[in-house]
Structure formats: C-alpha cells, structure tokens
Design goal:
Layout: E1 5-7, H1 9-25, H2 29-46, E2 52-53, E3 63-67, E4 73-79, E5 84-91
Parallel strand pairs: 1-5
Antiparallel strand pairs: 2-3, 3-4, 4-5
Helix pairs in contact: 1-2
Amino acid sequence: MNRPIRIESEAATELDEASRWYHDKRPGLGMEFLEAIDVALSHIVQWPRAGAPVPGVAQGLQVRRVPAGRLPYHVVYLETPTAVRILAVAHDRREPGYWHARTNQ
C-alpha cells in the first residue's frame, strides 16, 4: 500500500522559490523543473525504499533522496509508518545538509 506524501512547509517553499528562479532564468524552465519534481515524487510513491540513502543524518533514520531529472536538485524524504515526509527540495551544491534539523519534527 502506498503511503501518502506529506510535503513539509519548508520543502514547499524551496520548491516554489526554485521554480520561480528557473522561470525567471528562462520561461518554461520553471515548468520543466516542476515536472521533474513530479516524476521524482511519483518514483518515491511507487518505490519509497529505492532512493539513495543520505549519509550524516541521525542514526536509525532512513532518509533518502531522489534526483530531479537533469537539474541539480534532489527530493529528500523520510518514510514513516503513516506517510512519506518530503523534507527538502535541495540544490546539490548549496549548503549540504541544511535540512537535517527537519528530521526531528
């Protein structure tokens, strides 16, 4: 049974800001980014344990990540008994691990 996706508010903000940035860079690129995130989310819903484990988080937490297509972003998530929590829509090269505190919520 697939667990529902719960997008944390910080992750939703990151998603919105990144899509706007891409759209401002080139019209249509923001939509391409959102479509890549949709594909990543679909992958997570179907195969939640297939994402790459993220090192450096609290021991015992199964935090994983899935890339957002060809763009330098990953969807970072934690599978819980009741839902899949989207912790971050994180840029690959900016402030690695800034979202680690979100695993405590």
